[in-house]
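# step 3/5: fold
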Amino acid sequence: MAQDLKPAGLLDGKYRLIRKLGGGGFGDVFLAEDMVLAGHRVAIKILRDRRESDNDALLREMRILAGLRHPGIAGFFHHFEHQETLHLVMEYCPGGNLRARMDTGSVSQELAFKWCRAMAETLQFVHKKGIVHHDIKPENILFGEDESLRIADFGVANSNGGTRFYMAPELLLGEQVSSSDPRIDVYALGITFLELLSTVELFAGMSADERLQAKIRHDFVPYDLAHWVQEIVLKAVHPTPELRFQSMGELCEAIDSRHVPYILDGNRIVAHRLAEKAEDLIERKKWKTAQKTLDLALGRSQDCVAALITVGRLDLLLRRISQAAAHLNQALVVNPRADVQKELGWIQLERKNYPQAISMLNDYLQRHAADFEACNLLLECFYRTDRYEQGDELAALMMKEKGHSGCFMNQRLIFRILSGAYKDEWLRSEDMDGIANPFIRYNIDVASEAPSSWDAGGRSTLKSKLLFQDYRFGLAGATKKVNTITVGQEKETPKEYSGFIVGVGRLTANEICLSGTGCSRRHAAIVNYLDDVWIHDLNSMTGVTVSGQRIDGKAFLDGVSEVQIGRYKAMISPKRGLLV
């Protein structure tokens, strides 16, 4: 018996250890003879110290594998404990492992393809059972007595563990990856396959970080391989999972046909074009037509990422937050690298999770510094969390940039009003006729009005009556076309209002002046832009109800809506002529 054998005597009452076969991070493997079944040899893996929960999970996987009874999987017989250490009794494969074969000399291309296809076929079978190996490498590919391949060591199956040399980039980068994603094994098998085909050592002389960068650059496949071989390997080891072979079955098909099939999904092409059309409709505020177009797109292809992102953005613009989250999360399921961080930050802002929103928007702006819409979302986070100095500084910076939205001037105004930088005397003396932005005109009116609709020490603060301006309302041309809303109350003649901001409340300064109890001095404000009409609750005591639902902050008025403000009930149409 070899000197490195620690266990003495018969294990489990019948196994005599012969010699050590190898070892790894999970334990050592020994060749043993079954003293009850004459001539029967097994491999016993003695696991290193592991938590009991880890052992339970491992044994569940091993029992599943034992039940598969696939000729390409090294058999698992049973387990036992000796000296409080778990021992796994496995099939002994006398042909050694693939690493040993590679070390003895070059492997022919024909044999490399034969072996790779056999491994892919076995793994395809395993993946269909919901098991991903996670540690495919030459050391875990064994040869039986008949020289057939066996995949062994499922010790890290479905655990996102494995050997870094063979790991896919998404695992090394710490991205969220499903432990049952078969593309992890596709990548590792691709590296193993490339090692078989290469005449030089893969990643020779590279540090772990240099190796990761080479994987991301996708530039380590030798040019001296046949073109069709390069194509197959390049697709197997693509750094983007969505551009990799999506299954071992696809890899088998490519090996059989000696080329990577280029299959274009006609439905997805149509869906992508419809998504592009919907984007244009959204820019023109044709919300309903955009929604119908996106419904058609997703009807064609439910996993069209462009359509999912665009419908998620439409949901956000119309403040359908739950729907937006569902669509954007589905886009990430299809493509975890979909660039939706701004939209996800926007969702966190709407959900009032401000630290998360600020973090996500900051990270996004590191990569897209000139995205003014994202800058405005970050400004809104500063506004909601009373960070007026930071908001003032960022708004001033944005005002210097060409092509920005005029909203930044309004945002800077309200930051300076709330920080005390602008005094009442200056606000009252401001020439309102020279101000084109209706939000600025409104906010100066509110901040300087007497009597005021707000109380610095009470519930109705000045901030609660001001309006933060959405990015699109400050774009060039936003105020060129005047919109007329119609407000009708029972037994009264409907009235029309054409201002960009229509105030509602008890104060006579409001365009819609209400009397009676249950209504605040400035109770609500209607932002009245063409095809983009919103009603804001200005932190009123009794709130604003639209079509029977009390709104949280603001609501989009789409079609004729029944609105209740205190005891005041009216039908509001976002366009002229809809009220009879």
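# step 4/5: annotate
The longest strand covers residues 15-24.
# step 5/5: archive (pending)
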